[in-house]
Design goal:
251 residues, alpha/beta, Rossmann fold, N-terminal domain of TfIIb, 2 domains, 7-stranded mixed β-sheet, 4-stranded antiparallel β-sheet, 6 helices, 11 strands, 26% helix
Length: 251
């Protein structure tokens, strides 16, 4: 079963995210590096649009893009219940067009970059550039890999409203020459005594090493490298065993 068909459990699994802290980070990056004022933000791989409420509270317009129809439906339902306008599109993040849609900030989180080759990465950059205003920022979280060849298994447990979700993540190399790997995600759910095991496996990605990623950015005409950091803190440089983010600017 695909984990994206179960938005409630997926949300609990990743409920360690702190929307207020993370949006503080985005606003800090905007104030330091953006060359344009930001009115609209664009989230790729938006899923349940977990930061929608916080962006709305701070006066920003929000646009999302995702491929999962169940996640989009759940996001729209929640936005409607909260009385918040939500614009979200269904599409492939590596090749999309959103005529009439522009944003001054774009971001993708939790390594949700589903490019399987350098060519797809460039197509992704082309698509994002068609929406992002010149001078605006593109923040990419968890897209660079430092320890894929070693033990990269991660496991954690989150609880909410009497539901416990234990999540296991692992990336398994498929082709060393093409630098591709499968992403395997398993949710072990205890929903008030009802147990369910949800597996999301063999989702193909290309892994990008940090210096390789920087070189690819230099080769793309629409973006320039600004900086990188770890744990959504601009004062902390990237490290091998942490979640690292890279900040680009549209040129």
């Amino acid at each position: 079963m695909d984990v994206y068909r179960f938005p409630q459990y997926y949300e609990i699994a990743f409920s360690f995210r702190d929307a207020r802290h993370d949006v503080d980070f985005f606003e800090n990056a905007i104030s330091r590096f953006s060359k344009v004022p930001v009115k609209t933000v664009f989230e790729l791989g938006s899923g349940l649009s977990p930061y929608l409420t916080e962006w709305h509270r701070r006066g920003y317009q929000y646009v999302g893009l995702d491929l999962g129809e169940h996640m989009i439906a759940a996001a729209r339902e929640r936005a409607l219940a909260a009385g918040i306008k939500l614009r979200v599109f269904r599409g492939n993040m590596n090749a999309f067009k959103l005529p009439g849609t522009k944003a001054e900030l774009a971001y993708v989180l939790l390594g949700s970059l589903y490019a399987t080759s350098n060519q797809e990465l460039f197509s992704h950059f082309d698509s994002v550039a068609s929406v992002l205003i010149r001078g605006g920022l593109y923040i990419m979280d968890g897209v660079m890999h430092c320890r894929l060849m070693s033990n990269n298994r991660q496991k954690w447990t989150m609880r909410k409203d009497g539901i416990k979700v234990t999540t296991t993540y692992r990336a398994q190399v498929v082709d060393h020459l093409k630098q591709t790997h499968y992403e395997d995600l398993t949710l072990e759910v205890d929903d008030h005594g009802k147990r369910r095991r949800i597996v999301h496996s063999q989702v193909l990605h290309k892994f990008f090493f940090p210096q390789e990623f920087l070189s690819l950015i230099e080769c793309h005409p629409a973006f320039e490298f600004v900086t990188w950091c770890r744990n959504f803190d601009l004062t902390k440089p990237p490290q091998e065993k942490t979640q690292n983010a890279v900040i680009l600017r549209r040129i």
